[in-house]
Write a structure and sequence with these properties.
16% strand; single chain; alpha/beta; two-stranded parallel sheet
């Protein structure tokens, strides 16, 4: 493998010193200049890391050690000794005693992923270099505000991306690594911030007001919980004219965006991605205006489980000429004629999630015809579909993802036709109650043998596909 540039051994359970020696010996021939190494295994030890970096550390630029739970701070010492051009480093879930030796090489790390690390302390921020990107998701510990403030000032002009996702289900009363005041101060002092993800964090008006000063903000995610109000949110949108991705997900939330001011002026920026999963708009007209204001640039929309998704909203989506991905799962109230119109008029569609919608075989035909680049089709629990729709699906050779209710008898036929699939989810197939299984005279052992045989045959037909059945 003399021309490999990227090697991904994520979740590998059996890697040994011997295999690492073989890989790194090849590298010493000087054939891998831009070498990326992603390694994730609970079996990897400090000696494995030494073996790796001593031979290929001179050109190692990207290194992720997520999941390598057996490593100690000795590995960081080895990385510091041999890796002088490392730019991205992903730390394993480690303790503060290990973190204080985060890589400090000749060419400082610019992208640092500390997600999942525990007991983060002020000592870390005493040694952290100036960064372009920092991921502190699902971390805990205690940081002295004075030391943290000093580090923020040092890296202020460089920081472009910050990820601070909290663990799902974390209570508002749980102590967080960064309190609200520290988070607000940090955002206020990162004027070049382009990307921020605050998933599962309780975001109030103070944080939104701070983001209003980030004129270069491009991506904003607030999935899972927030309490900000309309006024500050509208002001932020006015001030962030480069915003392209807006992802908001609040379970059971009701949000009205147009009661204070018209939406159209707020979205003069070229918004391309809109995620409002799980929302309950006070008026569908709010969302209609939002889509209308961004219809020329919108490429991705996620309205999964939107409580009041209706024909008017979907009709407005059909007016988006550049729409590529539409996730509308979970609302059967939309008429099939409206969905068919979307399928025909949005000619650049490459991925849809129509699960639970009242679509028919004709919808699948209209959706897939004249779309040679179509990649992802999710149509679970669409009760009006019949096996006839598989005729159109099997002709879509470009399909990479398929999630559908497929009869047992048709699974192999579909697999033979879609050799490019990367993910296949067969939902509601009732494997153990189909006619084929009935022919085994309801013998449980034979039923599971049939299942094993099916999976084995699917594995041979689709060797590169992840398969899930339910």
């Amino acid at each position: 493998l003399t021309n490999i540039h990227t090697l991904d051994l994520a979740y590998n359970k059996i890697i040994t010193d011997k295999s690492l020696s073989l890989l790194t010996n090849v590298h010493t021939l000087g054939l891998w200049r831009n070498y990326t190494y992603l390694l994730s295994s609970s079996q990897v030890t400090d000696s494995d890391i030494l073996c790796l970096v001593s031979n290929c550390g001179k050109s190692l630029q990207i290194m992720s050690l997520k999941g390598c739970t057996n490593l100690t701070k000795d590995s960081l010492s080895f990385i510091n000794r041999y890796c002088h051009v490392l730019q991205f480093f992903g730390m394993w879930n480690a303790d503060a005693a290990t973190l204080v030796e985060v890589p400090q090489n000749t060419k400082p790390v610019l992208f640092l992923d500390l997600s999942g690390c525990s007991h983060i302390s002020s000592a870390l921020f005493n040694v952290l270099p100036s960064l372009k990107y920092l991921d502190m998701s699902k971390t805990d510990g205690e940081i002295d505000k004075a030391i943290f403030t000093k580090w923020i000032k040092k890296t202020s002009s460089m920081m472009e991306g910050f990820n601070y996702k909290c663990a799902l289900g974390q209570k508002k009363t749980d102590k967080q690594l960064l309190d609200k005041d520290m988070l607000v101060y940090m955002i206020q002092n990162f004027p070049n911030l382009q990307y921020i993800d605050l998933t599962n964090l309780n975001i109030g008006d103070e944080i939104i007001n701070a983001l209003s000063g980030c004129k270069n903000l491009v991506h904003f995610k607030a999935l899972g919980g927030y309490t900000f109000t309309e006024g500050p949110f509208q002001n932020m949108l006015k001030n962030t004219q480069n915003l392209k991705t807006l992802s908001l997900y609040r379970r059971g939330a009701a949000i009205g965006l147009s009661s204070c001011a018209p939406l159209r002026p707020l979205f003069s920026a070229p918004l391309t991605t809109l995620m409002l999963r799980g929302h309950n708009f006070e008026s569908s007209n709010d969302l209609v205006q939002l889509i209308d204001a961004t219809k020329d640039t919108l490429t991705d929309v996620n309205l999964v489980y939107l409580a009041n998704l209706n024909d008017e909203i979907v009709q407005m989506l059909a007016n988006c000429p550049n729409l590529q991905r539409a996730q509308l799962r979970g609302n059967s109230a939309v008429r099939v004629e409206t969905i068919n119109d979307l399928a025909v008029r949005c000619k650049k569609l490459i991925a849809v999630d129509f699960s639970g919608l009242s679509i028919t075989d004709q919808t699948i035909k209209l959706l897939l015809q004249d779309k040679p680049l179509f990649q992802s089709l999710e149509i679970e629990q669409c009760l009006n579909l019949t096996p006839k729709c598989l005729t159109h699906i099997k002709q879509t050779r470009s399909l990479r993802v398929l999630s559908a209710n497929i009869n047992l008898e048709d699974i192999i036929d579909v697999a033979r036709s879609l050799s490019n699939l990367l993910f296949l989810r067969i939902a509601g197939c009732s494997l153990l109650t189909s006619q084929t299984v009935d022919r085994t005279k309801n013998n449980q052992e034979k039923e599971f043998t049939l299942y094993d045989e099916l999976m084995r045959e699917l594995g041979e037909l689709l060797p590169n596909t992840s398969i899930m059945m339910s």
